[in-house]
Amino acid sequence: MQRLSRLATRRFPPSGGGYTTDQARELAILSRDVGRQIGLLIDRQGRVDMLIVGEPDRILIPELPRARLGETRLRGLRLLHTHLSGEALSQEDLMDMVALRLDSVAALTVDEFGGPERLHVAHVVPVSELSGPDAKPYDVLPSVRWDRSEVDFAALVQALEDEFGRQERAVAADKGRERALLVSVSGAPRIVQERSLDELAELARTAGLACPARMIQRVDKADARHILGKGKLQELEVLCLQTGAQIVIFDQDLSPSQLRNLAEATERRVLDRTQLILDIFARRATSRAGKLQVELAQLKYTLPRLVGKTPAMSRLMGGIGGRGPGETKLEIDRRRVRERITKVRKELESVRRHRSGTRDRRAKAGCPVIALVGYTNAGKSTLLNTLTGSRVLAENKLFATLDPTSRRIRFPREREVILTDTVGFIRRLPPDLQEAFRATLEELESADVLVHVADISHPEAEEQIGAVESILTEMNLAETPRLLALNKWELLSPDQQEVMRRVYPSGIPVTALKRQGLTPLVAAILGLLPTESQTDPAFSAVPAADSDADPDEDVAVWDIEMGSDVVQ
């Protein structure tokens, strides 16, 4: 123990292999005497930050504090350790170096008499997307005699830090977008996971993230601690270094402990699919109702994930003598979140009553309501704009619009109707969001006709149509008259169009961007409208625009006479 203590007080030079000849001999003989590997974590000033005594064939590095800099910078420590069997650097040594972002790792082999033999050195290297898929994030130098090494670790680290800095600046200049690594861990076939990751990539793009890489693992049962196995976790760290990813997004929902453990292991922000969707909804919500709905979903998601780091006071306990002096910070936070959830629910109930009153006034006016439903980014808002001449936000992104928008339109035969655009559906919509957006989806319950808008050009069009139909069935809307509008029909080849006609014989091909192509759809809608609902003169006094508009504000009324060029 005295010899180990003395070794830990030595100052190791940065050149000549990172040690003096006396230090190498001392380390080698001491390792042979104890019969175990000995490791030294040395900082850039040459001081020993940690001394580790391992097993005869391996060394275990304990948990280290978080890195001093960003995700792509090095930790500022190099590992010098012994190998007793003359072996070179193992894969475990290299993965530890990458995962812990050590400056370098060196193995000094020891002969049977306790003398140093050869030195093996490896260091991390910056790997860009141009390096190729087989590029490794480390470089293993040729081994040399222990007293012939000319590695200058100070110069090496400076060159590496400069290169990492250039990569960081290049990433920052990538249109200001952060980079995210997409991960799927499931028992589903690989092709199913790939398609699900494609949708996750679209969600990430909507959130303003770049997705340079993805990882897939097929498992029968996910790891309870990290969801990923140990080997895949190391591979994840390598991939993050290769692509400069600052965020890791999982396609599966993660438990609070898994989120915490993954964040500690990767030292990066870790999100799951639900968090990403919540973030998108928070960015896109503009109306008071939409913001309340998103806040409710976020609060319900956050509540079980609140973690107390250092309790300032003991918890409240029951029983005589068991009551502590007060609540912990964690308990206070949880109580405040519950109180806020209760308040938001009351405000949402007020919104529901307001919308219910609006629907009742529409019903008394005898004006039919046509609701546009469908998968997110299917073209509902574009169709609304084309039919009514509106300028509702329509972008090629998932969940571009969240708030329901209603516009009045006069169809041929002097039929006035309310056309409503609703929030898009998505597979595996988080339950908290389903409950939060119940007020929005209530617009569908009062609809006389549902127009299911589908992006027929999407590779997963059939799956998306099936997902929407399932959601409508769950909402007890299966009996509501419904039309299927096959949007983006012009993007299909003639053969694909023939196939889709056979698959969906009742579907109506449309091009939402062109008015001339909407003739069959408008005619089909008119055919499903109640015959007794003719235009009521009192209807003009009924507010029929955005359901979230303030009742005290003037509501714009869109009254468009469809020309003969649209409907004969």
Automatic annotation (TrEMBL):
CDD domains: HflX. It is found in: Cytoplasm. GO terms for cellular component: cytoplasm. Keywords: Cytoplasm, GTP-binding, Magnesium, Metal-binding, Nucleotide-binding. Belongs to the TRAFAC class OBG-HflX-like GTPase superfamily. HflX GTPase family. Monomer. Associates with the 50S ribosomal subunit. GTPase that associates with the 50S ribosomal subunit and may have a role during protein synthesis or ribosome biogenesis. This is GTPase HflX.
